[in-house]
Every structure is written in C-alpha cells, then in structure tokens.
Amino acid sequence: MHLQNGDCAKMNSTAKNLRRISGKIAAFIIIVIMASVTCACDIGHGEQSGSGRRIVRIGHNQATDHPINIGLAEFEKYVEKRLGDRFDIEIFPNELLGAQTDMVQLTQTGAIDFCVASNSILETFSDRYTLFNLPYLFASTSSYHAAMDDEDITSGIFASTKKGGL
C-alpha cells in the first residue's frame, strides 16, 4: 500500500473523529446506565404513592389493544373501584420495562410486582413449568381451571420457583 501526500492527514482526521464519536457514545451509555440505576432505585417494591396508596406495577410485552392489556386495564378498574383508596395499579405494555426476561428479573428483585411472561421463561427457573407447555394437556377450559385451582397440583410447581424470587 502506498500512501500519498495528504493520506496521513486524512487518516489522523478520521481517527480523531472516531475518538470524538466513541467518546460521545461512551458518555451516552454512561448517562443511560445512570438513569436506569436511578429509575431502578426509585421503583420500590410496595412503594407508597403521595396519597398513601400502594403502587402495584405490572409489565407485559403486548400492544395496548391486545387482550392481555385490555384484561389488565379491566383489572385496574376493578381494583381501583373497590380498593382505590389503598391501591394504585400501573400497567406498562409494549415492553416499556424491557423484554419478558428483563421483566421477570424486575419481578424477582421486587422492582415491579407482576409481569406477564411466557411459560418457557419460567422453565429456565424450574423444569416443573414444562408441564404447562405440553400441547393438549387439558381437554377444556374448565379442566384447565380445575387443575390450576387445585393446590395439590400447583403448590409444588409454584414452590419450585419461590427461592428464585417468583
């Protein structure tokens, strides 16, 4: 490779620009991390609002017009109508709090109270949750609810993730 006059100057200029840009990117990343840590510190499990109501945070990855969000919005109305003086429900759709794995971790640490996540994520904490991913396990919706309401069936499964903060 033969360098011509001015090539070294161009390379030095390019290197300086890259250093300046990478410095800005590093500063931006540090600011984002600091903001995230600050926000994480502000989101406390069982946090009380200014009105003395307990804030309950729920995250999920679906759009606002998805049945999960619609159901959670109805849950929010139901709770706040009956217990509005004691609870304030906050719903975070569209992965506002991160992907499902991130939200599960936030639930483990107590930063949020609930998240809607797929069973496959729970399988990483306990293989007992594999049961819920078996196709055609339940013959009907009523048989599903009967099994889920039976503590003899579910207590061992749910207890298997208790140490993990779930």
TrEMBL record:
Annotated source species: [Bacteroides] pectinophilus ATCC 43243
GO molecular function terms listed in the Swiss-Prot or TrEMBL record: carbohydrate binding
Protein's GO biological process: transmembrane transport
Signal peptide: none
Stretches that traverse the bilayer: 21-38
Taxonomic superkingdom: Bacteria
PANTHER family: DICARBOXYLATE-BINDING PERIPLASMIC PROTEIN, PTHR33376
Pfam families given in the database record: DctP
Key words of the record: Membrane, Signal, Transmembrane, Transmembrane helix
Protein name, entry field: Uncharacterized protein
